[in-house]
Amino acid sequence: MGMVRTALFNWAFARNLGGTFVFRIEDTDSARDSEESYDALLDSLRWLGLTWDEGPEVGGAYGPYRQSQRLEIYADVAARLLDGGFAYRCYCTAEELDAQRELAKKENRAPGYEGTCRDLTADQVVAFESEGRTSVVRFRMPDRDCTWVDLVRGEVTFGHEHVPDFVMVRGNGEPLYTLVNPVDDAMMRITHVLRGEDLLSSTPRQIALYEALAAIGVSDGTTPQFGHLPYVMGEGNRKLSKRDPESSLLMYREEGFLPEALLNYLALLGWSMGDDQEFFSLDQMAAAFKIDRVSANPARFDLKKCTSINGDWIRTLSVDDLISRIVPRLEASNFVSNPPTLEQQAILKAAVPLIQERLENLKQAVPMLGFLLVVPGEFVIDEADAKAVLGEDADETLNAAVAVLGALPDWNTDAIHEALKSALVEGLGIKPKLAFGPIRVAITGRRISPPLFESMEILGREVSLTRLSGALSVR
Length: 475
Known about the structure:
Elements: H1 2-17, H2 35-48, H3 71-83, E1 87-90, H4 94-106, H5 122-130, E2 136-139, E3 146-150, E4 154-158, E5 166-169, H6 177-187, E6 192-196, H7 203-215, E7 225-229, E8 232-233, H8 249-255, H9 259-267, H10 282-288, E9 299-300, H11 303-316, H12 319-332, H13 342-355, H14 365-373, H15 383-389, H16 395-406, H17 413-427, H18 432-444, H19 452-459, H20 461-471
Parallel strand pairs: 6-7, 8-9
Antiparallel strand pairs: 1-2, 2-5, 3-4
C-alpha cells in the first residue's frame, strides 16, 4: 500500500502539470526479484487504473525500463566513474567493516565507512588481490555539506560527516540501488521524484552522483527535484510495515475493495484537496493536486475509514456496474454460470439494489446473494443460526407462515409482509423481531440477510414455501 500511495502521488503530480509519468522496474536484486513479482506489479497498477506514459509494455525514448535489462549500462558507467576518479575499489572485509562500526560506537562517532581504501597504492591493490580479496566499488563523496530544497520538507541539509563513501557495486559485480537509480534518472531525463521519507538519507548521495554523472557525460547536468512523502503509520503509532496485514494490496483486492476507493483513501494519507472534501475521483485528484498541500507529518492508516470510503464508493456505482464487479465472485463460488443465465441475470438485477446500501466490500455480496441463486437441493441453513432461532418453539411460527402464504392470492413484497404480520404478530401475538427471525433464517439460511419480504418475492412462492417447510425439520 505504501508503494501504491507513492505511485499515486507521482501520477497525480505528473497529470496535474501535464508531465510524463514514468514506471520503472527496479529489479537488480537477483535474490529477491522474480518474473512473478514483475507481473504482479504491472497487474496491480493496471487494476488500480494508474496508467503510465513510459515504461514496460508502453515503451518510450529511454528504455528499457527494467533495470535487469540495463546491466551493461551500469557496468559501463561504473567503469567511467572509476576512470574519472569519482569512485574507487574497496577491499575491506566484512569483519573489518564491523570493527570500524564498533569503534565508532565506542567513541560516540557517527558510524560509516572511514575511507580506508580511498587512496590505495598499486602495490596495496596487488597485495589485496593476491590474498584473494574481492572488491566493491565505492563512490567518493565530496567533503562538503549537501543542501537541497525538498518539495515537501523545504530546505534540508546533511553534514558531510553523516554521508560517508557508499557502495555502488557489490563484489560479484551486481549494481546497487545507489548507482542504478541516479543513472536511470539522469539517462531518462527525470525532473521530479516523489518518494518515501525512508529514502531521505539517500538524497545527498544521489545529488553528488548526479554531479559526477554530468562530469563524465552521462547526464546533461539536471538534478531532479525531490519530495519526500510522510510515513504511513499503523497500529500503535508505528510505521506501517510490509508485514502488516493492512499493508497488503492483495488483501484489499481479495476482500472486494474498489480500486477507486483505495486510491481515494490513500490520497488522504498526507495530502488534502481542501474544503474538507474527502470523496473524489482520480480525475478530480489530478486536477486539484498541488505538491504544497502534501504534509510532512506522518499519516495514520485507519482501516475503518478506508472501509467506510469503500462503502461510499459502492453506493455510487450503477446497478449494472456493481453486478459486473460481483459476478466474478459469484462464479468462483459456483452460484452463477459463466456467463450468468438470463434467469440469474434477472435475479441479480432485482436483488443487488437490495444489498447495495449494506455492502462495505464486494466479498460480502456472495453470502448475501447466494441463497437466491443456489440450486434446489443445495440450500443450506447456517448451523449456528438454526440453533439460535429454529428451536421447537419456532414450529408454530413456521406452520402459520406456510398456511397463510400458501393461500396468498398475490405474491409480492407488500402482500407477503401484510400476510405474515397479520398471521404472526396480530394472530399469534408474537413480537415482530421474534416472529420474523425464524422466517428469515428459513428463507435465507442466515440471521443477517437482505430485506426479507423482497427476497421472498424474488425467490417465488414455491421455493419460499419449500424452505419454510424444510426448516421445520431443522434442529
